[in-house]
Write a structure and sequence with these properties.
- The complex is a heterodimer of chains A (346) and B (465).
- Chain A is an all-alpha fold and 346 residues long.
- Chain A is 67% helix and 0% strand.
- In chain A, helix 6 packs across helix 9, helix 11 packs antiparallel against helix 14 and helix 13 runs antiparallel to helix 14.
- The radius of gyration of chain A is 26 Å and the shape is globular.
- The N terminus of chain A is likely disordered.
- Helix content of chain B is 49%, strand content 15%.
- Chain B has 19 helices and 16 strands.
- In chain B, strands 1, 2, 3, 6, 14, 15 and 16 form a 7-stranded mixed sheet that branches. Chain B has a 5-stranded mixed sheet with strand order 9-8-10-7-11, with helices on both faces. A two-stranded antiparallel sheet of chain B has the order 4-5.
- In chain B, helix 8 packs across helix 9 and helix 9 packs across helix 15.
- The termini of chain B are far apart.
- The chains are: A mainly alpha (346), B alpha/beta (465).
- At the A-B interface, loops of A face helix 3, strand 9, helix 15 and helix 16 of B.
Chain lengths: 346, 465
């Protein structure tokens, strides 16, 4: 009790310290043990696997232990020396970054726009809209992904059928046999420039298809955050701006944007990590196709477990650790940025 | 009163528990399969009929999507788990047996059972001299057509495209064409192609067949007369005239379309027959299954391959029987038997697994991507060989060598004829030891190639110069 009443008092020795904190330790112990077993141990084991040639043949109870191969797996992963077709680490990484930036940008733009519209004075059924617009976010991403996949079917998908109906009714000539997820030639191709400078050559139609699907999934979250931030902006600021003769456009950039920024920046950071690892949308809609052109790091990691590599577990573990390092860097940058915003807030 | 009640309840309890205590624990067999609709129905009917006659055996089934079945079994069996039996085509058998995941069944198969399956059936499930599965039916693709849309079956590739074009109209498609490797590999064989050499390495780039094959697929992809990858729903709904599909869908198509479905041998490519893979749908046993379970499973297969079981397969799912005593009078199945005879036996070499993805990618590249067939093919062949290299290495160099104990072998085999003193104290180079061991093998020492290497390595290391 003494420690509680006077937290700054340092106990005489370690044993005293332990005795004083015995009850908190006892409370923490069960969950700590469970966490160590189901989270910490597998993670450490994965680190070990990344340095071995572990494969299927090492799983049997009476098999020999896998051999330590040092950094070999990491080198093979990063320099694309795996016997898997169309595997190119640099391309996957760049694609993954493009995918993340494109998505988060669209989420924020659409989310803020809808939030502004819903914040307009005198709009009817505001609450209904807010409830309905959250639906995409509330549905399991897996279900959404399967629905979108069906909509992109070249023969029976909603998009092509819709275009056919429009053609029928309006006499237009929209294409009705687009192979959304299968077509390989990139729809946007800047002449005379080769990738990686012309990123568009790496983006098949399937990329825009999964982008659209993930946009549909992602904007409601940004809308919710933006709505909350918008409602906390004092009306007086706009009134004062009106008196000063500022245009609506000016008001948006001078008042709305700076004041919703503290709320939006952490949401954007969160969105970045979610999108970077958006397994469901890629895996269930395009499955990384065509020819693995829409594979991102996490879907590739999953696929590594299924290929016929004799040391697949070692390679997959090394791959995951590389992904971990990339995400760690991402998170460290995020922390930096978000802390900067906190300072701005004060 | 209360006492009486307690006694009654206790008696009731004992009575309910008694039968299960007396009755033997049933032998439980688990089967993983990728069968759907008519085929799943067939499996249930077999099990019902079999377990009724053999109440001491219980059979549990689990549906696993076809593409997941092998990887999942592979992982599970490697850790000492997994289903006791999996059902699948024999092309998987080689790689599973090679990985030591399948039980060799030779000792369980008696003459009766041997006679219930055709010679070609047993050949398809024999790998490295042992039997690793029991065939249930022959599987291949053939041409399904709907007589309401297509009057007569096309005889040639050109005719097929022509008929498809003529039948197009409104909601109806003349043909839905699947460009998958499995569905179209028969064209490659018709053009004179060969997939792999004796060692399993790719031969697709030898000669012109590979390029011509991919060119044909590119042409058909750009041909407006056929619908690409329309899936089999369209045919099932009666909205497509033709489809190249497997015998496993015969039952399902008939359920939907009745007598409008006809089956024809695949059209000729030039003068040569379109020769699809002819595989054996086989029941393969997990190496971890207990002896009782394997015995019970073999009994189940005795029923499945019996005349009764095979007739049931013909009737319910339209399967092509493996039992030579069953002669189906069904025209569709007769066509599949004819198609199987001109097909290409499905290779069960473990290297086969290295071909699927690269070839599928080559097809995607030339169709969707419009790439040059020769380039796509060369790229595929390169990956295939690289994969095969990786499949072979660990088995040959890693585990087997480590598993062989040179010392134990030397102490056992050499001393069969002479004392250990002939070896102890000697100091020879590896070359000399090799000569000595070879000399001994000539004199009758029993050592196979790997054992010989292990013994020489041991001797040279411990009794070197």
């Amino acid at each position: 009790m003494a420690a509680v009443s006077n937290p700054k008092e340092t106990p005489a020795n370690f044993r005293d310290a332990l005795r004083q904190s015995a009850i908190p330790w006892a409370f923490i112990a069960p969950s700590a043990v469970v966490m160590a077993l189901i989270t910490l141990y597998p993670q450490l084991y994965q680190v070990y696997m990344a340095f071995t040639n572990m494969g299927l043949r090492h799983l049997a109870p009476d098999s020999t232990a896998p051999e330590i191969v040092g950094l070999d797996n990491f080198i093979r992963v990063v320099t694309s020396q795996l016997a898997i077709q169309n595997y190119d680490f640099a391309r996957i990484l760049i694609f993954n970054i493009v995918w993340t930036i494109a998505n988060v940008f669209m989420h924020v733009v659409v989310g803020v726009m809808v939030a502004l519209a819903l914040n307009a004075k005198g709009l009817w059924f505001k609450r209904l809209y807010r409830a309905v617009f959250i639906l995409p976010w509330a549905l399991p991403a897996y279900i959404t992904a399967l629905v979108w996949k069906n909509m992109y079917d070249p023969n029976f998908g909603a998009f092509n059928l819709l275009f056919a109906k429009i053609n029928e009714l309006l006499g237009t000539a929209l294409p009705t046999d687009t192979r959304w997820l299968l077509q390989i030639p990139p729809p946007i191709d800047l002449p005379g420039i080769a990738p990686p400078l012309d990123l568009f050559q790496w983006l098949p139609l399937a990329f825009y298809a999964v982008l659209l699907a993930n946009m549909w999934l992602g904007w409601p979250f940004m809308m919710v955050i933006a709505t909350g931030a918008l409602q906390s902006i004092p009306k007086e600021l706009y009134e004062a701006a009106d008196v000063d003769g500022a245009s609506k456009w000016h008001q948006f950039w001078a008042i709305t944007v700076p004041l919703i920024r503290p709320a939006m920046v952490p949401a954007i950071m969160l969105g970045t990590i979610w999108t970077f690892n958006q397994f469901n949308v890629i895996y269930f809609i395009s499955a990384g196709g065509p020819l693995r052109q829409t594979e991102i790091l996490v879907t590739q990691a999953y696929r590594l477990l299924q290929v016929e590599l004799p040391d697949r577990y070692g390679v997959a573990a090394a791959f995951s650790m590389v992904v971990f390092v990339i995400l760690l860097i991402n998170t460290l940058i995020n922390n930096r940025v978000t802390r900067a915003t906190e300072a701005y807030n004060e | 009163m209360r006492k009486l009640l307690s006694i009654l309840i206790l008696a009731a309890l004992i009575l309910t528990l008694l039968p299960s205590a007396i009755a033997q624990d049933p032998t439980v067999i688990t089967i993983w399969h990728g069968w759907q609709e008519a085929e799943a129905e067939l499996l249930e009917e077999w099990i019902d009929a079999f377990t009724e006659a053999n109440p001491e055996i219980e059979i549990d089934t689990l549906y696993v999507p076809f593409d997941d079945l092998q990887p999942r079994f592979q992982t599970a069996a490697s850790t000492g788990e997994g289903a006791d039996i999996i059902i699948g085509p024999n092309d998987r058998l080689g790689s599973l047996a090679n990985a030591g995941l399948l039980a060799a069944l030779d000792e369980y198969i008696d003459e009766d059972l041997m006679g219930q399956v055709s010679e070609t059936g047993w050949q398809a499930v024999t790998f490295g001299g042992s039997i690793y599965g029991i065939p249930e039916s022959a599987k291949s693709v053939a041409l399904f057509y709907n007589i309401d849309i297509i009057d007569i079956a096309p005889e040639t590739w050109e005719e097929m495209l022509e008929f498809a074009g003529e039948a197009q109209g409104g909601d109806v498609e003349g043909m839905t064409f699947n460009t998958g490797f499995y569905q179209t590999v028969g064209i490659f064989y018709a053009l004179g192609g060969q997939l792999m050499d004796d060692e399993g390495y790719s031969m697709v780039t030898e000669g012109d067949a590979g390029v011509q094959y991919l060119q044909a697929l590119q042409d058909v992809f750009n041909d407006d007369r056929v619908l690409i990858e329309g899936g089999n729903d369209l045919f099932r709904e009666g909205l497509a005239g033709m489809i190249v599909d497997g015998v496993w869908n015969l039952g399902t198509y008939r359920d939907q379309l009745g007598s409008a479905v006809e089956v024809a041998v695949l059209p000729k490519i030039g003068d040569a027959p379109w020769a699809p893979f002819t595989g054996m749908e086989s029941f393969m046993f997990n190496v971890n299954a207990s002896e009782d379970v394997v015995k019970a499973g073999v009994e189940f297969m005795r029923y499945v391959t019996s005349v009764e079981g095979q007739e049931m397969a013909v009737e319910v799912a339209g399967h092509v029987p493996v039992n030579p005593a069953v002669e189906p009078d069904d025209a569709g199945i007769a066509t599949f038997i004819k198609q199987g005879a001109i097909g290409t036996p499905f290779p069960n070499a473990p290297e086969m697994s290295a071909f699927w993805e690269p070839m599928a990618d080559a097809i995607t590249a030339v169709t969707e991507g419009g790439e040059d067939p020769a380039e796509a093919l060369a790229a595929a062949a390169e990956v295939v060989d690289e994969k095969i290299e990786q499949i072979k290495t660990p088995v040959e160099e890693g585990d087997d060598m480590a598993a062989l104990d040179g010392e134990a072998l030397a102490k056992e085999r050499c001393t069969a004829c002479h004392g250990w003193d002939k070896i102890e104290g000697k100091a020879k180079s590896e070359e000399d030891w090799t000569a000595t061991v070879d000399n001994m093998i000539e004199k009758g020492a029993e050592l196979n190639e790997d054992e010989r290497t292990a013994v020489i390595a041991y001797l040279a290391e411990n009794f070197g110069e």
